[in-house]
């Protein structure tokens, strides 16, 4: 059963606070930012505010398995998904992987710590910049349902039909040339994802990716 989109109430904002104050959590069809077919070309322009380049802390304590939430980092939507064991198993399915352009993440679209079959620092949580690598539209989240093409879930671009799996890997035949980018991020605790900061001992410059 599809739930209505839930928005977590935002606490009062203190000057200079880095915490992300607006987030969307859904167990079904995503509305709002994740479903908009709006190119994010303007988000790629240099930002004047120094605060825009600070790390952003996202509270994931209420994110249940099978749900996705959307955060904003440097003006870009970031999909954060908590994958179920069944969804993780589908990412390792050989027949499904054979349908992907870059199943092994050979293109430089992620940090080294996310160059793996789940394209993330830990298998359970996926973190992807939600901008199609074709012409910059925002893909919509399609949770696993039924059988056939939708059985394993993923993301679909509403502009030109590119499809990505739950690890942000693009399917063969799609106009998008690359997988969804993975931003630099760390998990300072089990309930917080910090966007814009690499784990200790890791280095990754987001500006060096192939394409967004």
TrEMBL record:
GO CC annotation: plasma membrane
Membrane topology according to the record: Single-pass membrane protein
Keywords, sorted A to Z: 2Fe-2S, Cell membrane, Disulfide bond, Electron transport, Iron, Iron-sulfur, Membrane, Metal-binding, Translocase, Transmembrane, Transmembrane helix, Transport
Enzymatic class: translocase
Predominant subcellular localization, coarse grouping: membrane
Segments forming domain Rieske: 92-194
Summary of the function given for this chain in its UniProt record: Component of the ubiquinol-cytochrome c reductase complex (complex III or cytochrome b-c1 complex), which is a respiratory chain that generates an electrochemical potential coupled to ATP synthesis.
Other comments on record: The Rieske protein is a high potential 2Fe-2S protein.
The protein's name in its UniProt record: Ubiquinol-cytochrome c reductase iron-sulfur subunit
Organism: Acetobacter syzygii
Lineage: Bacteria, Pseudomonadati, Pseudomonadota, Alphaproteobacteria, Acetobacterales
